[in-house]
Amino acid sequence: MRFSEYLVESTHQDDVHGLGQYTSQFLQHLSSPVGAHEHDHGIFEWTHPALEKDDGGKLKLKGETSVSAPSHPENYHLTLSHTGTGHAESNDHHVINALNAGHVVAMVYQRGKGIPHPTHVEDIKTGKRWRLTNGDDDDNTFDRHAKHGIPKGEGVVSGLKLKGVSNERAGAFANQVDPDGIIRINKPADTYTHAPAAPKEKKHLPKTQAIIDKGEAERPEGNLHQRIHHGLSKAFGEMQTDSPEVHAAKTKESLKAWHEFTKARGYSSKSRLDFMGSNGKTEKSTGEGVKTIGVGLAPHSLSGLDHFDVCPRSSTECRANCLGTEAGGNKQYPDSSLAGKVLRTHFMAFHPEHAARVMDHEITKHKEKAKKEGMIAGVRLNITSDMPYEKYARPMFDRHKDVQFYDYSKIHGRVMGQNK
After folding, report:
1. Domain residue spans of the chain
2. What is the Cβ-side half-sphere exposure of residue 330, based on CA atoms within 13 angstroms?
3. Is this model's pTM higher than 0.90 or not?
4. Sequence-distant (≥ 6) Cβ neighbours of residue 106 within 8 angstroms
5. DSSP 8-state assignment for residue 42
6. Residues 327, 332, 334, 337: is their CA dihedral positive or negative?
7. Which residues pair with 159 in a beta bridge?
8. Coil, strand, or helix at residue 396?
9. pLDDT tens for residues 250-299?
């Protein structure tokens, strides 16, 4: 079992008993070079209270290993993303587990000429089927059950038609629709035989590279995920007790820090960059009465910061077909688009307390705007990332109880830890 897999699947339980069920050899493996790679760049090792490092930097159990996981925020809905079936990196077993538990799963599909639109997804080993709904009309995965009259407790698939990427390049990432309109999953790992497309030519992105170079030179020491966690939690926690005057002063300081950070990296006052925004998919939700903004970070490891990955469970083909680089303007204007995402990622990693207050400011403005228009305020925190905000910024959800937060995730434990 991968180290990160154990952690994310254990931390949603009410009572976690650390790694006591594992052997000393397993702990030794976690501290080896191979195990270190499996840490997913250190994203989870410190979030689990049962683990610590000794003086030599090796992982070990703490004396007290029984911990309680915090409850999942009621206003934060998570949808599990499928990585495709019939290949070595498939998460079929996690998808089936989530569907059996009544959760929502997002699934990309492609269909040949004359093949009908898919209606169901089937586990070929058991024959069990789940209804597939149209996920292209809006981004509101949090209402899939209610919108389509599916009882709570029954799993449902949000189907996404492959767009903007050729079938050949999509490879195993996109599921095939059979002639009867069924998508069949849980196929053997060696089912997928199509040769992957040739690697894409590396693009010259001078603006993005300049930001990355500056970031590497200014990078703080230590684990950046730990830094983000501590900074976001601290800032959102302080917001609960700060007076309006103190909060306003801190917010003003953080907005100035964000502006100066972007300016130092080539953005003028006329081209001021928002920390949160929308895209074509989130804007579709407007027709459903939900006004949505989100955070677009540099996907997986594209921020250029060594040992820092914001999509720890992304598959090879998921990264190759990422909407953060392959969809719409991201593909048409790759340098300027990725540069903005890298800027946000670096600011959050280097100055998380400032990032928290900028986010709070923009969420508050967004709520006011949505209310004026008679709409629900929606916030997608991970448009192009997979960060566990329920752990990193838990007080944010209590502060903005009138916002519907939601995300897609490939981290099974995050999805299973929420209330259905």
Report:
1. 3-67, 76-185, 206-405
2. 22
3. no
4. 79, 80, 81, 82, 135, 141, 157, 158, 160, 408
5. T
6. negative
7. 107, 134
8. helix
9. 999 999 999 999 999 988 656 678 899 877 777 777 768 899 999 999 99
